[in-house]
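Please annotate this fold before class:
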Amino acid sequence: MQRIETTILKTPDGSKYLRHLCKHFNHKVEAEWNDTQGKVFFDMGTCEFNATLSSLTIACRADTDDALAVVKEIVKSHFDRFARREDLVLIWGLAE
């Protein structure tokens, strides 16, 4: 059974972060995106992004707990670095 972890970040810049993350990851792994949706294909799992005018939803998927933890950490470390100027921090499991 596939493991899934989701979070929702309240930000009017969801589309910006989605594009930035997908473009960045696309240098190493396959990624596809537009202004409102994106998907990154890591070796150990996937991460999907959905942006609205007020939020960014991030959903990571993997086949094992360990693989999911790796995908989540990769996405979190990059997001936190890209969003540090706005003081946004990705916290897994927040789905408001």
